[in-house]
Amino acid sequence: MDRAGIYIHIPFCRARCSYCDFATGTYEGALAEQYVFALVREVGVFVGPTETLEVDTIFFGGGTPSLLSPAQLGRILEAIRRRFRITRGAEVTMEMNPGTVTPEGLREFRRLGVNRASFGAQTFDDRELARLGRTHTAGDARCTFVDLHDAGFSNVSFDLIAGLPEQTLAAWSHNLDEALALRPVHLSLYLLEVHTGTPLADQIKRGMWREPDADLAAEMYSLMVERTRHAGYRQYEISNFCRPGYEARHNTKYWTGAPYYGFGCSSHSFDGTGARWSNERDTKRYVEMIEAGESPIVERVELDARAMSAEAIFLGLRLLERGVNLAEHRARFGADVRQEHGDDLERFTDAGLIELRGDVLRLTQSGALLSNEVFAAFV
Ligand code: SF4
Questions:
Q1: Is 239 in the same domain as 316?
Q2: What is residue 51's predicted lDDT score, i.e. its pLDDT?
């Protein structure tokens, strides 16, 4: 069994961004304090299979975890250390937003054991940031990057979003230049998705911005693949690029079927053998449940062999270099992909979306762009 990862959800932000549909709300000091108490309690009573109580990754996601005080972060880490065995050299990631942390705060986070920063730059264009409702400027992003470096963070990842309202290919190209000039060791580059019910979806409906153009988004994707490769990054996953040795170890667990345990509202867990469960999404309700001594789990699913096999294929295909080894897949799940999906394999190979070399099935670059179409065939 692979070692497990731990995900901690921090559902607070300075303000809501217009495109966001995550479980997060505006920061309230008193609620944040109650929430940290609840988290510590949830971690403390966790019962899991003994062999996976050893963990080698911890990920603070959100929301904006960097709004926590170092004392609050320390209490959560202490609770994790009491309940789990953290391996030496474990990856401890914190999502941060520019302008939400001071140099002293960063030094404290580093001292407490955080050794990787996932940094929400999103774009280096101030007008685009304002359109998204972000509370920081491109200058803040550059300053926080310098502060991270000064605080001893050498493992820093940037998030950037392409296909923003009114964004041109030239503007996206400029964004890539700005990000690459800072030489982060990891980049997560996403295409904007407009989620129903978000202010952005409403603004597009009212005609404030045009709907993002799919062909332009495809050009942006190709440009980022080309530009990052030229700059020495490996595209190890559809949306993730890194310098050798800096893959996101925590996120890789999601794509390889390793166990992970989520704590906090809206967090998800997987035991690595077929059980998935998720917590109450609403922050206040989550706190109430924990304070009342109830379990915050609101959904539990047991995947059968067929569902496990399908998941292993579409998650495995996200890892562009590694792909899915069909012989290993058959040994593990008893599923013969060549036999069960012969027509799909032929169709997608002819369309240039996948390639099968020996036993290893991989997405091509064109397939990475149309990955949802490919994945749908296997589910
Ligand atoms: S900072 Fe991130 S989590 Fe918070 S509202 Fe913006 S996009 Fe959502």
A1: no
A2: 59
